[in-house]
Amino acid sequence: MGKQKLTNTPLFFQSKLLCISVLYLFTTVFIAIYTFLSPTKCLFRSSPFDPIQTPLFSYPPSYGEHKYVVPTHRSSCSSPVLFSDYWTVLKEIQGLCRKQLVSSPALRYMKRKSESFGGNFSTRKRLSYFHRLNDIEDEVPCGFLQEFPVSDSDRIAMESCHGVVVVSAIFNDHDKIRQPQSLGSRTAEDVCFFMFVDDATLKGLHHHQVLSKESQKYNVGVWRIVKVSSENLYQNPAMNGVIPKYLVHRLFPNSKFSIWVDAKLQLRVDPLLLIHALVVSEKMDMAISKHPFFIHTMEDAIATARWKKWWDVDGLRRQMETYCENGLQPWTPKKLPYPSDVPDTALILRKHGLNSNLFSCLLFNELEAFNPRDQLAFAYVRDLMRPKLVLNMFEVEVFEQVALEYRHNLKKEGTSFSIGHKKGTKRVGHDVLVNATCCSKCQRYLLEMWGES
């Protein structure tokens, strides 16, 4: 009998399958740690969140819902966001939505007939509602002084949404309908998705065969399409879009949380995870991204005039003078924890309650009084209203991680679909708004903004 050959190799390494498994484990852990610590990532997840793998809707090739994406090139992240486990989040938000917040005071909304949807109150009258809500019997003007023209079936569906609602709008066929990505397997059942459109947008959807003309109930993927008869609202389609954007708590009176998503955006993260991470966990009334370029309101006003984002330059000047006269100040560290005066309002997350509802009502009144450029009125309302808004203004790189931004539909000038310039648009020189306001009621604001006071 020959001698059995002895080997010094441990048994642990004699199994190829075991070696491969250990190697795979260490590789996975390394990648996970690298991803967690990588400065280019802003979103971390404690566990997989059970995404839906199948497409939500198949678009006709002619519709082009994924054209003209806006590129982003940020290489760092200064404030990463950690998402909890999907199922933990689902149960927690379901529990919050079931609670009846009896102890929380509710706003009382003004009810009467008016020539406009919001009442179009004077500056003094609007300002009077910023501070007088110590008495819960006080009524606040908050739109709906004319009927919001939707069908009875849509109205019932909106009132039946009792949890989280995701809202968007397309007026004047200015954008494409885009489906949210990475939805959890229960999200489509627990979250309401509503897209408001007008006749022009509906014609475009029929033209591209996204919707059937014969159908009376419109659904595109997760979105329920609600037709709004905009003839009975504002002439400006952008102003009509402001109604679901800021009066979402009135359109969906039984919802506890909401997310406004501009139609140019496509959500890349489950809305339940977003609400939980940016609002619930942080104990906020509202969450919104900082503007990528501007900190001061006047910077945004000057850019609005210079780049012809609003045609009435005199109106912009009057608006800024009104705000300066009534207390608007440039941003300084004294305004912390608010890190900026200018948000990017393409994505707004809210907990429906006294503070966020009041802010939304007051801001809507300012937009009706001047123009739908909501970033101009944002800090004015936020800083002067009482009670104070508990606001999470997160970093731009977070916004770019949670949503993809696309370019608007290109419209030919002079067509009925164009909402850019109007006849009589004034040519804007390099410093038209600055030159007009530097010796007016905003002189002190500008000097403080430039550090010359």
From TrEMBL:
Keywords: Membrane, Transmembrane, Transmembrane helix. It holds the Pfam family TOD1_MUCI70. The keyword Electron transport does not apply. The keyword Transmembrane applies. It comes from the Eukaryota. The chain crosses the membrane at residues 12-37. Residues 111-408 form the TOD1/MUCI70 glycosyltransferase-like domain. This is TOD1/MUCI70 glycosyltransferase-like domain-containing protein. It comes from Turnera subulata. The lineage of its organism: Eukaryota, Viridiplantae, Streptophyta, Embryophyta, Tracheophyta.
